[in-house]
Specification:
With 307 residues, the chain is of the alpha/beta class. Helix content is 44%, strand content 17%. The chain contains 11 helices and 8 strands.
Length: 307
């Protein structure tokens, strides 16, 4: 009987790994054979190095409106729990968002950055700041309105974006101030890191939080965006906070707490998107009739407009 059970287990594990292997091969060949779509009215420029090295993770993709002469620019920082993801992840879902923005008259830059645990959280923040620095130096060449630069991040990307926008030291590395960020879009992020890690489940702590933030509470506080709000309040950019209604409980809590902390002078009401969860909201964000897409376009349109 024991031998029979052992054989069953071997068979189950064999089938399991066959399924995983088949799924990986399907993803690999689909990814390798993928060609980005050509969208009318959109100029796409791929693999621009924002740091002068040959590293793939130090590149961004640009999506620009062909007919517009001067347009706002959204710099998008992808999610992935600080250790996964890329500007071309999920068969270029972020590129689809960028193309949709550009088709609507808004420029978009989709940024790759280095990942933990091979690199540190500080490296990631430095990369985001470097991408902003590149845009500051080169934006006019592409017809961008340099008074309408919006930094946007989803999930862990929202954490990185808020850190760079709230804490001046990351842009100081490039002799810049946070006032080059004219607008900030924080999409389904977590901002109270010191509070969140002790509440996270065992698996999440060890698979997501510790690899990125380590185990020292003093470091968690340093890497909590909310730690920098009060001391830098006068320089914080106008901010849009949003999430899908079916999102994780802590995403909802953090979004509303941050909005309350920032206050109506910096952000309005949190935008809650009906019918969307943490992942589905990304896949639907490129649809021009989507509520989330409309909220972002509306917010971008308000940047640089005097009240």
């Amino acid at each position: 009987m024991k031998i029979f059970k052992l054989k069953d287990m071997v068979i189950y594990f064999f089938l399991f790994f066959c399924v995983i292997g088949a799924a990986f091969l399907a993803w690999y060949f689909l990814h390798k054979s993928y060609s980005p779509p050509v969208v009318a009215g959109v100029r796409a420029i791929y693999d621009i190095s924002y740091i002068n090295d040959e590293m793939y993770k130090h590149q961004l993709d640009l999506f620009l409106p062909e007919k517009e002469k001067k347009y706002p620019m959204v710099i998008f920082v992808h999610g992935g729990g600080w250790k996964h993801g890329d500007r071309r992840a999920l068969i270029d879902v972020y590129g689809d968002i960028g193309r949709s923005f550009a088709a609507g008259g808004i420029g978009a830059a989709v940024v790759s950055y280095r990942l933990v645990p091979e690199y540190s959280l500080e490296d990631q923040l430095s990369d985001v700041a470097a991408a902003l620095s590149w845009m500051h130096q080169n934006g006019t060449e592409y017809g961008i309105d340099m008074n309408r630069i919006i930094l946007c991040g989803h999930s862990s990307g929202a954490h990185l974006a808020s850190m760079v926008a709230f804490d001046p030291r990351w842009l100081v590395e490039y002799n810049l101030k946070t006032d080059i960020i004219n607008g900030l879009i924080l999409w389904s992020g977590l901002y109270y890191i010191k509070e969140n890690i002790p509440k996270a489940r065992f698996f999440s702590r060890h698979r997501i939080w510790y690899p990125a933030f380590g185990k020292k509470p003093e470091y968690w506080e340093l890497m909590s965006p909310v730690s920098y709000v009060e001391k830098n309040r006068s320089s914080l950019p106008k901010t849009l906070i949003l999430y899908g209604k079916k999102n994780f409980k802590r995403v909802k809590e953090h979004s509303h707490k941050l909005a309350e902390l920032l206050g109506p002078g910096i952000t309005g009401e949190v935008a809650v998107i009906d019918g969307e969860g943490h992942f589905s909201e990304v896949f639907h964000a490129d649809e021009s009739d989507n509520q989330l897409f409309k909220k972002i376009v509306e917010f971008v349109g308000s940047i640089g407009i005097e009240p």
